[in-house]
Write a sequence for this structure.
């Protein structure tokens, strides 16, 4: 189904949209920084990393290889430093994974581009859907065991403090779902499958809950900004996939 407004945003209005979206993101993140942090050096560093992340995700949604994967490498490297310096060594795993996928993506995408130099997305077969579903199910099943093993070495990805969302949903499992889905979505994106944006939409919703529960409002703002971009990315990739 074609939507004229989205055709314009991903077509003749693309540059205007990118500039407006980016500026709104910068303003929102800056407001979150000033109102919800202590303005420490680490806070300022993460704000800078967040700005790089904005460039990364909007470039990925518009299928720009060097900008998307290149800035993705910078953003994820920055996130690794943030987690390491804040003592959350377990949380370094996701950005480390994403960093190496961007390294792979910058070479892989360059081999699958259209005449304009933009990456050509591809549809997922039933087999790919089944493999993805199996990966998610296995990941969810194994994660607690792996997490406990990492915890024994001081690298737990998610701490289980018995807190509940809405009084009955385990905060631990919300984190687990967010982690597994984000790893899956990232892999699907780098492999050029357009359905990755459906996963990112779910991931952003889950991460919004996580960030609100943990009081991490600047991350929550970032998640909402990313969610808008995810819908644009979904439409752009599907439109390009169909030709």
């Amino acid at each position: 189904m074609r939507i004229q407004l989205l055709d314009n945003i991903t077509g003749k209005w693309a540059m205007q949209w990118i500039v407006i979206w980016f500026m709104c993101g910068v303003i929102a993140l800056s407001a979150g920084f000033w109102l919800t942090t202590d303005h420490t050096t680490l806070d300022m560093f993460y704000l800078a990393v967040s700005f790089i992340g904005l460039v990364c995700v909007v470039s990925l949604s518009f299928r720009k290889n060097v900008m998307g994967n290149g800035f993705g490498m910078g953003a994820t490297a920055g996130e690794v430093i943030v987690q390491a310096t804040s003592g959350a060594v377990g949380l370094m795993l996701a950005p480390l994974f994403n960093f190496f996928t961007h390294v792979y993506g910058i070479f892989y995408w360059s081999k699958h581009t259209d005449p304009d130099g933009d990456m050509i997305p591809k549809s997922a077969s039933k087999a790919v859907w089944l493999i993805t579903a199996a990966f998610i199910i296995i990941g969810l099943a194994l994660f607690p065991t792996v997490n406990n093993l990492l915890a024994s070495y001081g690298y737990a990805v998610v701490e289980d403090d018995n807190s509940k969302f809405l009084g009955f949903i385990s905060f631990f499992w919300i984190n687990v779902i967010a982690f597994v889905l984000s790893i899956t979505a990232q892999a699907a994106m780098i492999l050029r499958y357009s359905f990755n944006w459906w996963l990112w939409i779910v991931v952003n919703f889950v991460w919004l809950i996580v960030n609100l529960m943990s009081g991490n409002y600047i991350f929550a703002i970032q998640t909402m900004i990313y969610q808008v971009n995810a819908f644009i990315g979904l439409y752009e990739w599907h439109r390009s996939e169909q030709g």
Notes: The chain has nine helices and two strands. The first strand starts at residue 164 and ends at 165.
